[in-house]
Amino acid sequence: MHAAYDESATLREARKVYFEVNAFGDDGGYGSAWVDFKLGPIPMPFPNTPARVRAVRYHDLHHILTGYDTTTMGELEISAWEIGAGCKGFAAAWVLNLGGMFAGLFADPRRVFRAFVRGRRSDTLYDERLEDMLDETVGAARRRFVRESDGRVTAADVALFVLAQIAGLFVGLTTLAIVLPLAPIGVVVGNLSRRRAAHKTA
After folding, report:
1. Exposed, middle or buried, 18 (CB in 10 Å: 0-12/13-18/19+)?
2. pTM score, two decimals?
3. What gap in Å lies between CA 142 and CA 64, rounded to an integer?
4. pLDDT 10s digits, 131-186
5. 76: helix, coil or strand?
6. Terminal-to-terminal C-alpha distance of the chain
7. What is the DSSP string of 28-63?
8. CA 37 to chain centre
9. Which of 91-130 are b and which e, b meaning 16 or more Cβ less than 10 Å from the residue's Cβ?
10. Cα–Cα distances in Å, from 140 out to 8, 133, 145, 188, 192?
C-alpha cells in the first residue's frame, strides 16, 4: 500500500503511519514467528529470523524515504534500490534483496534497473543507529540518503547490475530450495495463529 509522509514528521511517526496503512500491527510484525514471502499471489511462509528482523527495521524506513510501496512491484524495486545503495553488513538484507531484484527481471526489468541506478546514487541506513534515525525528520533523512538519478547510466551501473542479477539467480534458487519444504509448516502455524487471534477478539 502507498502512503504519503509529512516531511516534518519524525521517522518514528511516519513508521507508525506505515504500519497502520499496511496493517502490519503495532510492532510492524517484528515479533511474528513466521512471515509470508509472496511468490506472485502465492504466500510462502518462512521463519522470521532475528537476522531478518534486524534488517527489516531499516528496510521499512527505506520504504518511507524512497516512496516505493509494499506491493509486489514496490518490493522488487526497493530490493534493487537497496542492492544499488548497499546493504552494508546485513547478510539477510543482501540475500533477500538479491533474490527480489532477480525476480524483478520477470515483472518489469526497466523499473528494477531504474531503482538500482537510483540506489547507486543514494545510501542506505544500514550502518546508522536505528534509535537516532527514528528521531530524525522524514525530510532531513531523505536529503541525507536519497539521491535522484539524473537519467545518465554508466558502464559501471550496467556491469554491477548484471553481476547482481547473476548473484540473485543463485540466491533465489537457494532460497526457494529452503523455503519450499518449510512452507507447509508455515501455513499450519499461520492458521493456528490466526485462529488464536480470532478467539481472543471474539
Report:
1. buried
2. 0.86
3. 9
4. 999 999 999 999 999 998 888 999 999 999 999 999 999 998 887 676 666 556 65
5. helix
6. 28
7. TTTT-SEEEEEETTEEEEEE--HHHHHHHHHHHHHH
8. 11
9. ebbbbbbbbbbbbbeeeeeebbbbbbbbbbebebbbebee
10. 8, 10, 9, 43, 43
